[in-house]
């Protein structure tokens, strides 16, 4: 049996990359082959996370606006139904039975009468105990304090509030004593009163939260006692302003 002869392989050797005939040629490594076929990695921006944050902020803004609109509508309906008005205050009379100033101390006793008026037809005011403080208008020197008990102020009602304001041997600094003596040299002593309290509004069976208010009555001109005769005051031009005080953390507005 004759042997079969196969032709020799005529494959050409790989040519060098730079075209030089005499350079040594090595086969490509796996890293080179993979690097040539695989595209370079480029990190994509975090669009999904940003889009979620934007959508959350947008929904939160819509929710706040919705709550504000609901609150505004509720306030408008409440105003149209009840026509709320602030209470008003006026100084009725003032009597000074004692007012002594020494080189370092002050002793005073005043009897104040104030009219509180509720002009509302359907709103009832419920007051906490009220702190009343008296001071001079010109130099703002405190001359005494007093307290009005808690009370309920009915609809379309005017209530007379009486309070005793006193200061027993209160020690004052030299500047306050000098200011007081300077005021006493005048014919009349300018005074002002501040009432600080908390009040809540009652509508039928509903009650609101307590709100702080401050009533300031200024423009009072009083005379000091002379002998056994007590001092009196002129209350014709007295104006009392009612301010709602809102406390936010450490600040009161």
Counting helices, strands and paired strands, the structural category is alpha+beta
Helical residues, percent: 10-25%
Mean pLDDT: 82
Q: Tell me the radius of gyration.
A: 44 Å
* Main beta sheet: 12 strands, antiparallel
Principal-axes geometry comes out as elongated
Indicate the low-confidence ranges by residue numbers.
Answer: none
Describe the structure.
- The protein has 253 residues and is an alpha+beta fold.
- It is built from three helices and 14 strands.
- Strands 1, 2, 3, 4, 5, 6, 7, 8, 9, 10, 11 and 12 form a twelve-stranded antiparallel sheet that branches. A two-stranded antiparallel sheet has the order 13-14.
- The longest helix is centred in the first third of the chain and has 36 residues, at 47-82.
